[in-house]
Amino acid sequence: MLAAHCRGATMPDTTTLLIGTTKGLFLLTQEGGGWRQSGPHCDLWPINHATGDPETGRIWAAGGSDWHGAGIWRSDGTDWTLAKLTQGQADAWILAEPEVAAQLGMKPPPPAPMGDRFSAL
Q1: E strand map for 7-58
Q2: How far apart are CA 35 and CA 14, in angstroms?
């Protein structure tokens, strides 16, 4: 479990817990004496590390698996963006079965900068 204490000129003093799990990233934010939960974030990727920037409110999360590959997620508060580092087994399957993948709404991935050079385990 990771914690980030966020203070900003435009936001009240809050505490947000960043919780990386095998089913994505969850956020617990303290609000008015209670807690608000959001997630899972990061498309259900296993998340091993997460940190928040109290100046900008940006959240970074890193993780992956042999199935997903490795990647770093970023959020500015609403949307999450993935910077994929390595290809995973899912990417190989999509390339090997493009018709089935298309029926499931899956598109071929762009090449990852580190290919499949290291395992996400």
Answers
A1: 14-21, 24-31, 34-41, 47-52
A2: 10
